[in-house]
Design a protein that fits this description.
With about 130 residues, this protein is an alpha+beta fold. The chain has 2 helices and 5 strands, in the order αβββββα.
């Protein structure tokens, strides 16, 4: 780890936290996005992270989509319903997304705290030479 390794590692955590927050927020925003029966539903986006090879920190490996069969429900009043009155519901679980938002927020905050502490330590080390 180089001289600024703590800052480098924490900055990757901040970036991962932001990506995770963005994905989960988008999922919550599409919680009620229905589509006509037969069309693919909105699928929740899941952030897949991996450790960096040879250095400290993490990277976003990819953004995956939740799988599984679509949920088709009868809702003849919906303007997007097909001729039989069915719509496809999004594959988003609000409880899961709120949990993800809390975890991503904590990840983001913890890494910002590490960056602040590392910055303060580097400042203190530089101040030693000025005395």
């Amino acid at each position: 780890m180089g001289m600024f390794g703590a800052l480098d590692a924490a900055s990757t955590g901040v970036s991962l936290g932001k990506t995770w927050l963005d994905a989960s927020s988008d999922n919550v925003a599409n919680l009620n996005t229905v589509r006509p029966a037969g069309e693919q539903p909105f699928r929740a986006r899941l952030v897949v992270a991996r450790a960096r090879t040879g250095t400290e920190g993490v990277d976003v490996e990819r953004i995956a989509e939740k799988g599984g069969p679509p949920e088709v429900v009868y809702d003849p009043e919906n303007p997007l319903a097909d001729k039989a009155g069915y719509v496809t519901r999004p594959q988003v679980d609000l409880t899961e997304e709120m949990t993800n938002i809390m975890m991503a927020s904590r990840l983001y905050q913890a890494n910002l705290s590490v960056m602040q502490q590392a910055r303060d330590s580097y400042k203190a080390a530089l101040a030693i030479g000025n005395k």
